[in-house]
Specification:
The chain has 279 residues and is an alpha/beta fold. Helix content is 47%, strand content 15%. α5 links the parallel β4 and β5. It binds NADP nicotinamide-adenine-dinucleotide phosphate (NAP).
């Protein structure tokens, strides 16, 4: 994988991103990977998804292995108010990191072939509840003087994809949102990273493609635990972490640097909106 400019200093990271982290979509795939990495750093966890037993088993295992505390929240992110429920579950905790992990498309069908309600549910998960959680957690991080935010987007954010039109649109929201926030929140010592994730061999991806004509070649797909590891390594170096289409593909650092330079240039222009007019 494309290496970050410097390895993550895990002691400093624990101080900045701890003592508590919240993971939305923590029960498997990259979400589980984040939980395992953060617990190994000694960071306490709020683990949220729809399957209580899986979350409880993971939390218990990590608490025993690393001496951390954990809290479980069963919450479907596709319902209105889920973002507030996640904020409420962590209201009494000092949260240094929020990971918005869940967000895959379990539909994968033509825009006109599903009830519009399904697409609105995707927007609720990948847009509305992302806004609500990021707003709540990042305001608190600004008060406490720092923290981190990771949002799992997708390579599909880079352009429209037939039969994933709504999915790629919500993922584009996430990447644009993160690029802006990265620059806005930098002065407040809050690191923001959006992961434009590649094809990954996750339980969810297998469930979603099971019975379809899509054949998963594990050798061509990334390991989700490697991606969550990379994401934490890259968190201080946002705004985007990009991947090649295939395992062993090209180094994405030039493209990531180009995107960052564009955000920095726009930041200089955008900042002038917040300054008083010259008299
Ligand atoms: N897999 C890929 O190839 C791929 C490619 C590009 C981008 N991504 C992105 O990477 C992230 C992780 O992908 P993934 O493949 O692991 O699938 P995912 O379904 O987005 O994530 C799995 C995790 O999210 C939880 N989850 C799923 N739907 C949920 C809902 N409605 N409410 C609450 N929790 C929910 C699952 O737990 P429960 O089942 O217990 O709720 C599980 O913990 C997503 O944002 C996805 O868009 C994935």
């Amino acid at each position: 994988m494309t290496q970050p400019p410097s390895p993550l200093d895990r002691t400093a990271a624990k101080a900045k991103y701890g003592p508590w982290a919240v993971i939305a979509g923590a029960s498997d795939g990259t979400g589980e990977g984040f939980a395992r990495e953060l617990a190994a750093m000694g960071i306490n966890l709020v683990l949220s998804s729809r399957r209580r037993e899986v979350l409880e088993a993971l939390g218990e295992e990590l608490a025993t292995a690393h001496g951390i505390e954990y809290r479980v929240l069963v919450q479907d992110l596709m319902v209105a108010g889920a973002g507030q429920a996640i904020l409420d579950a962590a209201d009494d905790l000092d949260v240094g990191l929020y990971v918005s992990n869940a967000g895959a498309d379990a539909v994968g069908r033509g825009f006109l072939d599903e009830p519009a309600e399904r697409w609105h549910r995707m927007v609720t998960m990948n847009v509305t509840n992302v806004i609500d959680t990021c707003y709540g957690f990042c305001r608190k991080m600004r008060e406490r003087g720092g923290g981190g935010l990771v949002i799992m987007s997708s390579g599909s954010a880079l352009g429209g994809i037939p039969f994933l039109s709504m999915y790629s649109s919500t993922k584009a929201f996430e990447s644009n949102f993160c690029e802006g926030l990265w620059a806005e929140l930098k002065p407040h010592n809050i690191d923001v990273l959006c992961v434009l994730a590649p094809l990954m061999d996750t339980p969810c991806f297998r469930r979603n493609t099971d019975g379809t004509g899509f054949l998963m070649d594990p050798a061509g797909a990334f390991d989700p635990f490697e991606v969550s590891h990379d994401a934490l390594e890259w968190l201080p170096h946002g705004p985007l972490l990009m991947y090649p289409n295939l395992v062993g593909g090209e180094d994405m650092r030039p493209e990531m640097a180009e995107r960052r330079a564009r955000v920095e240039a726009v930041m200089a222009l955008g900042s002038s909106f917040n300054e008083p007019a010259a008299t």
